[in-house]
Specification:
The structure is a single chain. The chain has helices at about 15-45, 50-55, 60, 75-85, 135-140, 150-170, 190-215, 225-235, 255, 285-295, 345-360, 365-390, 410-425, 425-450; strands at about 85-90, 100-105, 110-115, 125-130, 250, 265-270, 300, 310-315, 325-330, 335-340. By secondary structure, the chain is an alpha+beta fold. Among the domains are: about 240-345, no CATH class; about 405-445. The longest helix has about 35 residues, at about 15-45. The radius of gyration is 27 Å and the shape is elongated. The two termini are about 35 Å apart. InterPro entries: PepSY, PepSY-ass_TM.
C-alpha cells in the first residue's frame, strides 16, 4: 500500500511524518514479505487439505463405499499390527462411507499410519505418521521442519505484518491525487503502474493480512504459549473439569492426537483401577459408546496406556459445535470427561473461532475461496513491491527511503511501535533491533559520504 514517490509537501510536518512512515514501511516489507510469500503458498494449499490429500493419497485414503457391514475396529487394529509390527496407539474411524480406517502404530523407528479398508480388512498401505502431502504443507507453513525456534519467527513476522498494513494504509491515504486510490494508472513499463497496483491491492487485502496475522498468533512461541497458559489457568480456556474435577495423569491430550489450540495443555484423566485389576472393555465396546454418545464420524480413539489409561475419543470437524473430546473409563466404559466447544471459556471460544476461520473451515467453500483469493493478492502485493523497489532503487544502493529532516517525528512513531511491542514482546524486541540497525546504517552512510568528500 506504499507510495514510493517522495511527498510534494514541505520538508517538515506532513512531509517528514510521511518519510518516517515510508521508511518503516520499507523495513517492514523487507522483513516480512519473504515470510508472507511462503505462508501464502503453503496456506492456500492447506485450506484445501482434505480435497488434496484424498486425491493425492487416494490409494490409501479412499475405498469403494459398500452396503455390507464394516469390519470391527479391533479386527482392523489387529490386521494393521500384523502388517506393521508394533503397539497400536490410536484408531481413527472412517470420516465417510468412502474413507479408509487409519491405525497409528508405534514402532521402534517411530509412529506409522496404517490404512485399512473397513469393509474387507485389506491393508491398503502405510507411511510414517503425519507425512501426507498436506501434513508436509502444514509443517512448511509453520516452519516446523526448521526447529521449534521458528515459532518465534512466525510471531515476529505476524507483528510486523500488522505494522506493514498500518503504515501502508497511511501511505495510501488520498492526498489530492487523481489516481492510485482505487484505480491503476499507466502500463506495466511505468513505475506508477506498479505503485498503484501495490496500493490498490494492499487496500483490498490489508484486512485479511491483519486477520490472518492475529489468528495465527496462537501458534507463536512466546505470545501464543503465554496466552494459552493464562487462558487455561484462569478458566477462560478449557473447562474447569479438565483441571480439578477428575483424577488426571501427567499425559496431555496433544501427545496422543491432534487437538484444538484450547486443549493443547489439557491433561488426560485416569481410569480408577478396580481391586484385583478388573477386566477392561474392548476397543469395539469403546467405539460403540462413542457412537452412542454421537461423536462426529472421523473421530480418533487414543488407546489406553497402562492400567490407569483411558479410551480418548476426539474429533474436530469444520463445524465448531461438533468438536468434542470424550474420555472413557477403560473398565466401566463410562465417560470420565465430556468436553465440547460450548464448554470452552470466552477467550477459548473466540480464539478457536479465529483459528477455525484461519484454516478455511468456518464458512465452508466460501471460506476456502476467500482465503485462496487473499493468498493470491498477497503474492501480487509482494511481487509488485519487489518490481517497484527495483525500478526506483539508486544504483549501488539498497534504496532505503530518505530520513525525515526533523528527527522528532520519529518519537511519536516509535511510541506507537512501543505499544505494539508491549503487547507482543518478541515483536518489540525485533523493533529495537531494527531501530539499532537503522541508526548504524545512517552513521555508516554518513561516514562514507564524509570520506568521499
Amino acid at each position: 500500500m506504499s507510495n514510493p514517490s517522495q511527498p510534494s509537501g514541505p520538508a517538515t510536518g506532513l512531509g517528514d511524518l510521511y518519510r518516517a512512515v515510508w521508511r518503516w514501511h520499507f523495513y517492514a516489507g523487507l522483513l516480512v514479505l519473504p515470510f508472507l510469500m511462503t505462508l501464502s503458498i503453503t496456506g492456500a494449499a492447506y485450506v484445501f487439505r482434505d480435497e488434496i490429500d484424498n486425491w493425492y493419497h487416494a490409494d490409501f485414503k479412499r475405498v469403494q463405499a459398500q452396503e455390507t457391514q464394516r469390519v470391527s475396529a479391533s479386527t482392523l487394529v489387529a490386521l494393521a499390527v500384523d502388517a506393521v509390527p508394533g503397539a497400536a496407539v490410536k484408531y481413527t474411524d472412517p470420516a465417510d462411507p468412502g474413507a479408509s480406517a487409519e491405525v497409528t502404530v508405534a514402532t521402534d523407528s517411530g509412529k506409522v499410519a496404517v490404512y485399512v479398508n473397513p469393509y474387507n480388512g485389506l491393508v491398503l498401505g502405510a507411511m510414517p505418521d503425519q507425512t501426507t502431502l498436506m501434513w508436509t504443507m502444514r509443517h512448511l507453513h509453520s516452519l516446523k521442519y526448521f526447529g521449534t525456534w521458528t515459532r518465534y519467527l512466525i510471531e515476529i513476522a505476524a507483528g510486523w505484518s500488522i505494522l506493514l498494513v498500518g503504515t501502508g494504509l497511511y501511505l495510501w491515504w488520498p492526498r489530492g491525487q487523481g489516481g492510485g486510490v482505487v484505480s491503476v494508472r499507466g502500463t506495466a513499463q511505468r513505475r506508477v503502474f506498479w505503485r498503484d497496483l501495490h496500493a490498490v491491492t494492499g487496500l483490498g487485502v490489508g484486512f485479511f493480512i491483519v486477520f490472518l496475522a492475529v489468528t495465527g498468533m496462537p501458534w507463536s512461541g512466546v505470545w501464543g504459549g503465554k496466552v494459552n497458559e493464562w487462558a487455561n489457568g484462569n478458566n477462560f480456556g478449557y473447562p474447569d473439569g479438565v483441571r480439578v474435577n477428575v483424577p488426571m495423569s501427567g499425559q496431555k491430550l496433544d501427545d496422543i492426537a491432534r487437538t484444538s489450540w484450547s486443549l493443547e495443555q489439557a491433561r488426560i484423566p485416569e481410569s480408577p483401577v478396580p481391586g484385583g485389576g478388573g477386566q477392561p472393555i474392548t476397543l469395539d465396546d469403546a467405539v460403540a459408546e462413542f457412537d452412542r454418545l454421537g461423536l462426529h464420524p472421523g473421530y480418533a480413539v487414543g488407546l489406553p496406556a497402562g492400567p490407569a489409561g483411558v479410551f480418548s475419543g476426539s474429533v474436530y470437524p469444520d463445524d465448531l459445535d461438533r468438536q468434542r473430546v470424550v474420555h472413557l473409563d477403560q473398565y466401566s466404559g463410562k465417560p470420565l470427561l465430556d468436553m465440547s466447544y460450548a464448554d470452552y471459556g470466552p477467550l477459548g471460544r473466540w480464539l478457536e473461532w479465529g483459528i477455525n476461520t484461519h484454516m478455511g473451515q468456518t464458512f465452508g467453500l466460501l471460506n476456502q475461496v476467500l482465503l485462496l483469493a487473499a493468498c493470491a493478492a498477497i503474492m501480487l502485493l509482494a511481487i509488485s513491491a519487489a518490481v517497484m523497489w527495483w525500478k526506483r532503487r539508486p544504483a549501488g544502493s539498497l534504496g532505503v527511503p530518505p530520513l525525515p529532516r526533523n528527527r522528532r517525528v520519529f518519537r511519536g512513531l516509535i511510541a506507537i511501535l512501543a505499544v505494539g511491542g508491549l503487547i507482543f514482546p518478541l515483536v518489540g524486541a525485533s523493533l529495537l533491533v531494527m531501530l539499532a540497525l537503522d541508526i548504524a546504517y545512517v552513521r555508516i552512510g554518513r561516514r562514507a559520504r564524509e570520506a568521499a568528500a
